[in-house]
Amino acid sequence: MMQIFFLLMIMSMPNEPSVRYHASIYPTEQECYQALDKYINAYDSRPQDFKDKMVTKAFCIPFESFPIEKFKKDIGA
Question: Can you give the pTM of this predicted structure?
Fold first, then answer.
């Protein structure tokens, strides 16, 4: 088993039937939090009229995973 970090971004907009989400995985906690900061900074830099029409939250969630081939080189496995 290996630990990965799951970046979950949740968005809500008026008159939508549900919330929307997007998720990505990262091999390290640091990379996940860097991506989270980039996402939040991009949202914060948008005009207020955009933010009045979309709210968002994002989280880095640690997760035990079976080995992921793509990440083997990133963690030295």
Answer: 0.84
